[in-house]
Amino acid sequence: MRGGPPVIVMPALDEERTVGPVVRECRAAFPDSPVIVVSDGSADETAARARAAGAVVVEHPCRLGVGPAVQTGLRKAIELGFSTVVRMDSDGQHLASQIAPLLRRMEETRADFVVGSRFLPGSSFETGSTSARRAGNHLLAAFLSAVCQTRVTDPTSGMWCARGDLVRYFAHRYPAEYPEPEAIALLRRQGYRMAEAPIRVMPRAAGESSIRPLALPYFAMRVGLALLADRVRPVDRRYALGASPEPEISLPR
Fold first, then answer.
1. Among the four 7, 71, 129, 162, which has the fewest Cβ within 10 Å?
2. Whole-angstrom Cα distance, residue 207 to residue 103?
3. The pTM is what?
4. What DSSP state is assigned to residue 110?
5. C-alpha angle 64/165/9, rounded to 5°?
6. How confident is the model at residue 31, as a pLDDT?
């Protein structure tokens, strides 16, 4: 894998209205960075519009979920030879202008993983989040901070960057059910360093969140149990920080 510009990975499910403009915005801001769109069983024109905008598109034949879609994108990034990956949404909430601050924060802190936080001073969270959802996020952040012994303010952010051996690890094993908070717990357990940076988040341009307000207590309980399970899972020495490189991971052709 090589250094230099990042590759941008976007999972997408039925985002035909937004994916094209988001891809074009990223390509204009980072002309040397490929944009990988993983269409997760979309039933609309998501894949076609992403290709027309200049993205590298990988299509799942059926819906697998956000976690597997991100993992597919990471594997494709490795196949293309990139060692730094930015993950963002394709629904218009995340802006290409927010990628550079994440990368700067990574260099400043020498972290392996930087989360774009909606809840740090300097952030801008322009979305209709309910008070119940914000309270649930803060509770989960406090729990994850205690588990990981590091400050976490936004455990469900869908915008982050990762590099080096951590990209290899996540390409090998990325959480499927609760990917964002579980990924933080796993990377800390594997010995990797994380940091956060404030980002600006826009209102969702189309569609709606898959997490309903009435399901928040159930979601919080399930995430908590998953995080506790991660604490007793053995460290994967093949992908721990500083482990010797494994053979490159390629997508089946």
1. 129
2. 29
3. 0.85
4. T
5. 40
6. 96
